[in-house]
Amino acid sequence: MTLPTQPNAVRLRVWRNLKALGCAALRDGAYLLPEEHAGLLAPIAAEVREHGGTAMVLTLTANDATQRQEIEALFDRTEAFTQWRDTATTLQAELPQLTETDARRRLRSIADALQALHRTDYYPGAAAAQADADLASLRQALDACFSRGEPAALPAHGIPRLDAAQFQKQRWATRARPWVDRLACAWLIRRFIDTGAQWVWLADPASAPADVLGFDFDGARFTHVGALVTFEVLIASFGLEADLRLQRLARAVHYLDAGGMPVPEAAGLEAVLAGLREVHADDDTLTQAAAQVFDALYAVPPPSSTSPSTVPSAAP
Can you give the three-state secondary structure of the chain, one letter per residue? Predict the structure, then answer.
């Protein structure tokens, strides 16, 4: 499409309508929607023509799978989900200072904003699933803050709540040569769940001994559930969701293990753990060294309750 430079109000209205539909920009004046939503472009094209512009609605076909992936990448909503997550994190940090009415009003607004994002996320990926899990965690944190004394609701995805007292001095098993999720789980288990935990490193998870508690492999007692990685499942299982420092760590572990929304700590954490893996050939020694890294990250104060500023995007 092309539009006359004046009146500017028409240009802004057309651009806002295209943005509200979640259109991807192929280039200046060329906007994309999945074919099944092409009918939404017809009213916009009609308005452009009514104001002296030109507009055509065409069908674009990718030449091959690589080109199709490039086109779909133009619809990537990871940045928008990350900005949404920042707002949700701010609310969780501010819960102790809010009244229940204000907290639930803001939660509704955050939930509505996520639904709006989903409506324009035409090719959902890991970020969308992670946002849904984050919203469920936020709801639980709010209920825990304002509904004290009532029975705890099941965490997201129906993960049963467990009593750490029933999991003491256990033998915990996972795949040998642990990486981010397994290293984080080992730290979490020994620090928050079972201080007397012993590790069993499995060369073949299919042959795990019957008397161990498995984590982060197929068939293990604790492993991925829905969009949650094993570290997040353990947090939910033992009722640790209200700990904002753990939630910050969980976001980094999730991103490094399953993708989704990036976080500032992830690159540094990955680099340090990769270095430790090169230095330590013994898995017990590696786990002890990694625990010091997670201890240090956990010691960083939780995020400030100051709401992040929102910078509006400039119109083309």
Answer: CECCCCCHHHHHHHHHHHHHCCCEEEECCEEECCHHHHHHHHHHHHHHHHCCCECCCCCCCCCCHHHHHHHHHCCCCHHHHHHHHHHHHHHHHHHHHCCHHHHHHHHHHHHHHHHHHHHCCCCCCHHHHHHHHHHHHHHHHHHHHHCCCCCCCCCHHHCCCCCHHHHCCCEEEEECCCCHHHHHHHHHHHHHHCCCCEEEEECCHHHCCCCCEEECCCCCCECCECCECHHHHHHHHCCCCCCHHHHHHHHHHHHHHHCCCCCHHHHHHHHHHHHHHHHCCCHHHHHHHHHHHHHHHHHCCCCCCCCCCCCCCCCC
